[in-house]
Design brief:
By secondary structure, this protein is of the alpha/beta class. Helix content is 40%, strand content 16%. A 5-stranded mixed beta sheet has the order 3-2-1-4-5. Helix 1 packs across helix 4 and helix 2 packs across helix 3. The longest helix is centred in the C-terminal third of the chain and has 24 residues. It is globular, with a radius of gyration of 17 Å.
Amino acid sequence: MLTEYPFSEGPVAGCDEAGRGCLAGPVFAAAVILPPGFTHPLLNDSKKMKESDRQILRGVIMRDSVSWGVGSCDHHEIDRINILNASFLAMHRAVQNLKTLPQLLLIDGNRFKPYKGINHTCIVGGDGLYSSIAAASVLAKTFRDDFMNELHNEYPQYGWDRNKAYATAAHTEAMLRYGRSPYHRKSFRLKSQLELGI
């Protein structure tokens, strides 16, 4: 069951990313400050939610949160600075887009590059523990899905409307058949991705 983070007296922003393990397109991140006592029966780790429920929650979060922000890094930036640093940068951009300054950032995962002037805590599996991180996971996932749906219209042969550029069998088969699109990450080797199971 999701709960509020209990160890901070000031505003807390949950942060999460989406698209880190994809073969193409950007990585998106979101930061969300929820009001005290916020609950919603559909809210969960976005990976465990139905797409329709994520869309419902997206509207609720954008309407009812104290503040929310979304940021991204495109495939060029990912190739230039690597996916880990791009994920951190996308989170920084999401925090920059908050209208309320949090006192603490809750980061889903085990690593983060400090954001100047704001303390942070890394929590592995945080999107399944704390409401603000789960809310951030919903925004990051839905904003990135929308973006990949747009790219699908340009390159429908890769099936990005369904696989969102993850290394599914259909996506990898399309890459072998058609080659890489301009949106594929050149720094990602397909064989390495499959071996890592990302």
